Amino acid sequence: MTADVLRRLAALDDRVLTRASPRVRALLVPTWQTARLTYVVERRLLGLLRPYRLSVVGGLLVTLAITAVGLAKPWPTKILVDDALGKQSFLGLHGHGALALAVGLTAALFLLSGALGLLQTMLLFGLAQQLIADLREKVFGHLTQVSLRFHDARGSGDNVYRVSNDTYAIQSVLLDGLVPLASAALSLTATLVIMMLFDPVLTLLALVTVPGAALATRRFSARIRTASMEVQRRESDVYAHAQTTLSNIRTVQAFAREGYETSRMRTRAGASRQAMMRLVTTQTLFGLAVDLVLAAGVALVTYVAATRALDGQLSTGDVLVFLAYSGSLYGPVSGVASVLGELATAAAAAQRVFEVLDEPTVAAPAQVDAPTSVQGSLEFDDVHFAYQPGHEVLRGISLRAGPGDTVALVGPTGAGKSTLASLVMRLYDPDRGAVRLDGTDLRELPLDWLRGQVALVPQEPPLLTGSVRENIRYGRLDATDEQVEQAARDANLVELLADPRGLDLEVGERGLMLSGGQRQRVAIARAFLRDSPLLVLDEPTSALDARSEVLVMEALERLSQGRVCLVIAHRLATVHRATEVLVLDEGRVVQRGTHRQLARQRGLYRGLHEARFGSEPQPFELEAVPA
After folding, report:
1. If you count Cβ atoms within 10 Å of the first and of the last residue's Cβ in the chain, which end, N or C, has fewer?
2. So what's the pLDDT on residue 509?
């Protein structure tokens, strides 16, 4: 939507501005571009209000009532001056009677204004909070569905900042934009009508300064938006650095880098402070410029109105009422200028939100039914893949595996082993070639269903904050406690089952309350519970002691019966059981065969072993092969 509107506006931009002189283009282009982007962003934000039309209409009606009350406030002053203190009579009242009426009307109007203001705040602030919650859910949900390429290119701290802070733009649009603009428009219209009926000449004098306020708005709006974008970027840097440092506090303290990280935070916080000061300074200068222009108008109207009162053409009450309405006129004009500045700031934050929402999610086929059964045949057909254009990490990989087959991937670091495993789960898609399940390209299968067919055990499993039980159940949310406990037994989590807290033991942030071997076995238990036809194992025994390794390998061997098992292998204890071993180097398959066959061949497989152990591998040797 945004891209389409921007293209249309850009076409209009070109047609109009190319006919203007260079000086006019230099003046108009920045303003036009800022207004164009702000319009598109604000329009999208206002689109989020559609489900809450009744609340918005109610808020605007209350705003209309507040405006009407505000327009009535000057009249008790006229009654006070002309009828209570002067010689005129209002509805037959003068002196103390007029005084009582003026005081009563003033009190009633202020009480009514306060009550309406409270109602407006409760109605619209509640709506704004609901919209923020909706937008956060939408942005967060979208972030969980975009490709890992997007997450790889951005830090998690920046994305968290967009979810938690930038989403407040909708509140700014509603409370600092839509409502003030509606109020200002109503107030300006009604005030002008009353002033024209009261004295057309003074009204025209009051309007002389409005073009000056509009010029100030035009000159400052682009600067405010640019400064706002810089503030959002700098604040995001602060948030990202704090999150990264504190989530890796063990490493920071282990290397005695507390001072270094604090210094880096000082630099980022200083940059954020400077950006905020530039924004506040620009906003303040903007308000000052508008106020100076409007002050000149007030002075002009005051002088002319007082002169006419001295000449007997107006009463003192008339002068006070007209000056009050002049203030009511200049107030909305200044308010509109301020609102435009707020909208520019909100547009900067909202643009960052929509950058996320406009990021395409992992492509899923439309209206495709999930297969009713899975045989478990997995195929890589001439697969090429690159994280960055021009730097392929997989180059023409082909392999086939059927039910009961275990394919082990070995090779040096960076050879592409983990990337192959990621393609099975469609965390990425191939740039060329295809990955197929039972002969069907993974891109043609429902994404949620596909990932439900794969159980993953990563080499360094990050656990979610919560209990051991909750982390195991993450593999299948509808599993019973008995099934969770059985999965824990299958993964040899005997010491946790024997603990008085059992599986309700809290794992801490990223599972740091558990040992490395325990975290690994929790991930294995999660895979047991998932019971999927495809297993992706990133060396599941790498963090286990010898006794646990034997028990887990036996369990994994039972689990792999009748299933496709893709293993990123580091140990020959894993490799020698594989149906086929693929040796990868620089994204290509340089050797393939069984462990027994490769152990008797010259090549990278033997070279990896000799480089580490100084001897040739034996066909059933249970030693480690580096990956």
Report:
1. N
2. 74
